[in-house]
Design goal:
The chain is mostly beta strands and about 300 residues long. The chain contains 1 helix and 20 strands.
Length: about 300
């Protein structure tokens, strides 16, 4: 589905939020547009990983602050990762934009009209929006890519602008500002592909450093929670014994938390605040694994220490 269809659907629903109005001579604007960013929102994410399928499941809770001036009708995420099996809350429609790396959900259903409804030329309030002080669950999808920090957008419910009778040639597109420029902007986590050419070895013992490398973590990194840590054993073709792999996070043994992710030699550990040793602020991960020193029959250990911050 093309994103232009989504834009058309949003306009027809009477909910697309607009910004400032340019000077237009072809018709009189009698109801000016209202900005769609008069709100404050959070998008809390929970992430789980299934070793059998190699897929992460992302679930989001969208919350609207009690101090917001608008209800939320649009929720969007910007990321470059892949996804399958998107799910939507009741009354909401999912769209994967094909012209940019964004997915979005919109409250496009309006429900049944109340018996006392009076048609004023606009649509009635949407019963599926997220009201001030409320939260909504049901936004989810799966992806083979691990979580990292991504932007999100939440747009407030507004009415369509109206113009006078002489509007046959009215350039409505001049009134429409893209929702990425007319929404509350925040950050959450979303799927982010790994570039295996940009790995971190730890740099402690060059002869054995590639026994274990970190594919999405470097010393001193700042990460959001939940945090997925992906390691690869024997990235240079070294003979490594995976049964000797050990990991400690902030002093606690988390070896069993690292499971195969479906890629040869790769393990992933998924950690969240409150349900693992992961802590807000500074974290220390210690790993070790044994293998054969290249060109010899001698066994050695690759021991690495990585410090990172959870924001």
């Amino acid at each position: 589905m093309h994103s232009k269809f989504h834009t058309a659907a949003l306009l027809s629903a009477g909910l697309f939020a607009l910004a400032s109005v340019p000077t237009v001579a072809t018709a009189q604007v009698i109801v000016p547009p209202t900005p769609g960013n008069l709100l404050s929102a959070t998008a809390s994410a929970s992430v789980s990983f299934d070793p059998a399928s190699g897929l992460y499941t992302y679930r989001y809770t969208l919350s609207n602050a009690a101090s917001s001036q608008q209800k939320i009708w649009l929720f969007a995420l910007q990321f470059t990762g892949r996804l399958v099996n998107p799910q939507s809350p009741s009354g909401w429609t999912f769209l994967e934009h094909d012209d940019r790396p964004i997915v979005s959900w919109a409250a496009t259903e309006i429900g049944e009209l109340p018996p006392d409804y009076i048609d004023d030329g606009n649509l009635p309030p949407n019963p599926y929006t997220v009201a001030q002080g409320a939260s909504l669950v049901g936004f989810s999808f799966q992806s083979p890519d691990p979580p990292a920090n991504v932007p999100f957008f939440a747009q407030g419910e507004t009415k369509l602008p109206e113009v006078g009778e002489d509007d046959s040639d009215f350039p409505y597109e001049e009134l429409v500002h893209d929702f990425t420029q007319d929404s509350f902007n925040g950050s959450t986590v979303g799927p982010t592909p790994i570039d295996e050419t940009q790995f971190f070895t730890g740099g402690r013992r060059p002869a054995v450093d590639s026994f274990l490398v970190f594919l999405n973590l470097s010393d001193g990194d700042a990460r959001p929670a939940p945090a997925a840590i992906v390691v690869k054993l024997g990235i240079g073709g070294e003979t490594v014994d995976p049964t000797t792999f050990r990991a400690r996070l902030n002093g606690t043994d988390v070896t069993s938390s690292f499971v195969p992710n479906g890629q040869p030699g790769e393990l992933v550990g998924l950690f969240d605040l409150g349900s693992s040793p992961l802590a807000a602020g500074r974290n220390v991960l210690l790993t070790s694994v044994e293998g054969l020193v290249p060109g010899t029959t001698r066994t050695a250990s690759d021991v690495d220490r990585v410090t990172f911050t959870v924001q």
